[in-house]
Amino acid sequence: MHDAVNFIRKFPLTAWIFIGIILGVLSGMFVGESIIPIASVFGDLFLRLLKMIIVPLIVTSITSGVLGIGNSKNLGRLGLKTLAYYIASSLIAILTGLILVNLIRPGFGTDIAFSGNVNAADLSSGSLKDLLYRIIPVNPLSSMVNSEILPIIFFCIIVGIFISKLNDKHRLLLTDIFNAGFDVMMNITHFIILFAPLGVFGLVAKITATTGVEIFRSLGLYFITVLIGLLWHYSVNLPFLVIVLAKENPVRHLKNMGAALLTAFTTSSSSATLPLTMECAEKNAGISNKISSFVLPLGATVNMDGTALYECVAAMFIAQVYGIELNFAAQFTVVITALLASIGAAGIPMAGLVMMSIVLKAVGLPLEGIGLILAVDRILDMIRTSTNVWSDSCGALIIAKSEKELNTNSK
Ligand code: ASP
């Protein structure tokens, strides 16, 4: 037993997660559907553990993050920087997608049969007004019960701001309580993520056994366009921002964030990955808790570069397939609505697909178009989620550097 523990400790968590992915793909391919029952248990248990911790982690981390920032002048500055980064990086992602989809024209001349019937009513849940309404909770407790992250974040920021305006006695008491609560949640998180390799194995085995590698073959060109866009954003745009704005080595940052990025890839959920993202950012990348606890939870729901890029490419692809030419004004609308859709998308699997209806409605494209892209959405979701988390972590690094909150002596 002792030997086994020592053997496990010999390799970093990232290596074990990687092994989990490879074993998952192999067993999904070779064992086939009979792996699903056992794989589901591993995957589901891991996801349940992560979901269990998300709401308490966000509540304590945002509130103590806001309290840690101190006076409201600092909060305003940090808030503006964070927002500027989110919007700029998402717009760069969308423009990358727009250029590629216009160059490659994946839907041009394609003759794709509908791969499924999409229930438009299910998918049309997000108008622009709804998006804004969803930020302010009618009842913060019900938002917590239902894991609605945006209203929780909004409420906790307000609570944090008003705690920092209290007299010293009460302010210090509440600050202590939130900081202590946050410590507990982080410790629980450290414990949960030790199980990541097992969870990842289960999730990957299940996907491979259910959809097979077949999924890669259909809708090839569309898939490739989104893929190239995401990879470009991942490996060129974001590293460029890290080099220029933070003057840090993006490869080292990538290595530091490895466990979180791989978990994002396999869980397809920025929110579920959040505990790990914060752990890697603080422990490996040396980003202070003050910055990471403000930038990352907000980013996990609001900053989704991969999703934004995909919304734009998918809408343009659907237009091309239906033979609808989108002029400059319409493409501009696609860009803006793709940005809003990515902001509104929850950090959960396939949330981006649900938000597609906003973009399609805005330029008058048929909602059934979503049926075209369903088949490959699961795999693209994995890559865009990892891109989303990568962008959050680059933002945290850049902002930490500019606020002198980066400990460059860490790994
Ligand atoms: N799954 C993505 C995320 O959690 C959202 C999406 O569907 O694009 O970041």
Describe this structure in words.
This protein is an all-alpha fold. The protein has a single domain, classed as Proton glutamate symport protein (Orthogonal Bundle), CATH 1.10.3860. The protein is built from 19 helices and no strands. The chain has helices spanning 2-10, 13-30, 36-69, 72-104, 120-123, 128-133, 140-145, 149-163, 168-193, 196-211, 220-246, 250-256, 258-267, 270-284, 289-302, 305-321, 328-344, 351-362, 370-402. Helix 13 packs antiparallel against helix 14 (270-284). The longest helix has 34 residues, at 36-69. The radius of gyration is 21 Å and the shape is globular. 49% of the residues are buried. Mean pLDDT is 83; it is low at 111-126 and 214-218. Bound molecules: aspartic acid (ASP). The site of aspartic acid has 16 residues, from helix 18 and helix 19.
Ligand set: aspartic acid
Compute the number of strand runs: 0
Distance between the termini: 30 Å
Task: Please estimate the helix content.
Answer: over 70%
> Within the CATH hierarchy, at the fold level, what is the topology?
Proton glutamate symport protein
Radius of gyration of CA atoms, rounded to a whole number = 21 Å
Strand content: under 5%
CATH class: Mainly Alpha
Largest sheet: none
Question: Mean pLDDT score, rounded?
Answer: 83
Structural class, by secondary structure, is mainly alpha
Shape: globular
Unreliable parts: 111-126, 214-218
* CATH architecture field: Orthogonal Bundle
The tally of domains stands at 1
What is the chain-wise order of helices and strands? Answer: HHHHHHHHHHHHHHHHHHH
**Tally of contiguous helical segments:** 19
